[in-house]
Every structure is written in C-alpha cells, then in structure tokens.
Design goal:
Blueprint: H1 2-19, H2 21-24, H3 31-59, H4 69-89, H5 93-97, H6 106-139, H7 147-174, H8 179-202, H9 204-207, H10 211-234, H11 241-261
Helix pairs in contact: 1-6, 1-7, 1-8, 3-4, 3-7, 3-10, 3-11, 4-10, 6-7, 6-8, 6-10, 7-8, 7-11
Amino acid sequence: MSTVYLGLLIPFLGTTLGATCVFFMKRGMNDTVQRALLGFAAGVMTAASVWSLLIPAMELSQALGRLAFLPALIGFTLGVSFLFLLDRITPHLHAMAQTPEGPRSSVDKLSRTMMLVFAVTLHNIPEGMAVGVVIASFLTGGSEITAAGALALSLGIALQNFPEGAIISMPLRAEGNSKLRSFVYGTLSGAVEPVAAGVTILLTSLILPFLPYLLAFAAGAMIYVVIEELIPEAVREEKTDICTIGFAAGFALMMVLDVALG
C-alpha cells in the first residue's frame, strides 16, 4: 500500500513545492531557469510516455501478435484528441500567464485568476489518470508494471509539476493576490491529480480490460502537453539551447529511472 500512497502524493508534492516559489521570489522565476525546467519537464514527460505507458501498453497486448500496437495506437490518438478538444474550450496556461497587464476591475482579476486555475486543473486530470492507471496495472499483478516503475512515473510527473506550480502562483501574485492566496491556488491546481488517480484505482476491476488503451491514452495526453505547452514556452524568442539541454537531461534521467528501477 505504501506504493499506492507514494504514487498518489508525489505528483501533488511537486506542484506544492513549485507553488512555494511565490514566497521566495520577488520578481518571478529567472527566465533561464524557467526555460531549463520546462525543457527538463518535457524530457521527463516524453520518456515517461514511452517507457512507462506506451511500451507497457503494447506488452499487455502481446496476444494480438503483430497487431499488438493497435490498442496503443488507438489510445494514444484518443489521448491527443482529448487534450486538443480541451484546449479548444479552455484557455492556455502559458498564454494566460503572459497576458499583458492593463487596467482591470477586481471582477476581471478574479475571473482571470479562476480561469487560470481552472485551465491547469483540467490539464492535470490526464496526468492523475496516468498515475492511477499505472498503479492499477501494478496492483493487478501484471509483470509489465513494477512498484519501482509506478513510482518512477509519479516522480517524473512531479518533476514536471514543479515549474507548473511556480508558473501558476507567480502570475497570480503579480496580479495583486497575496502570497498565501497565490500559493493556495497554485497548490489546489494539482490537488485534482491524486483525486483522479484514486478514482482510477478504485475502478480497477472495471478498467482492467481497457488498460492498454488507458495507458496509451495517458501517454497521448502527456505528449500533447509537452508539444503544446511546455516546449513552446521554453523555446520562445528562438532561445533553444537551454531548453535542449534541459530536455536531454530530463529524458535521460527518466529513461534511467524507468529502465533501471522498472
């Protein structure tokens, strides 16, 4: 059970630690550090999607022979499509964070604050599902997912959540919210992850036949976040070097964690 609790809490801890930056930084996160962290997070998420989600999804479908890729392909496509549709109806996190400040009423500020938190909260649901699906797969006793592999994915998502927590809380503080309120909003944006993971685990008996599809769905959702949110933010103004280094470091670390521990 310790694996379950750790797997649920580690990603949330990453968001919380990121949100605490609002107490220590007066002018926001250093641009170079932010780019490096976003690139690192993108590398972690990409490696986790491959080794922790897509490969296990295909291993669970070995009975299909040469068509073992099919559930992974379907799930991955659905995951990307789901986030694509979600982005059409919700604001983009980084676009909102960079919106130039102008005269705003208190109602405008509250509305923008809640939209920002709402947007990232929705984007965190697939990540929570990914953790839940992997832990559920581990609990069923399948050899495709080990306890260490499940924890490696949780750690990878936590690393991605750290800069995300800071990117939420810092703009909220810049809008005039108190440090405590900005921290609370930033933290709450990640609270949906353990909830989504817990619900997924509780539904293990129902989702068991669909595990390959769900693993790949989570991979597609995370890859979409990497391409649509993390990398564009990290390479804006064509400053790509630090992002590339961060991506390579994150990818290598997650690959080592997943293969060595999994």
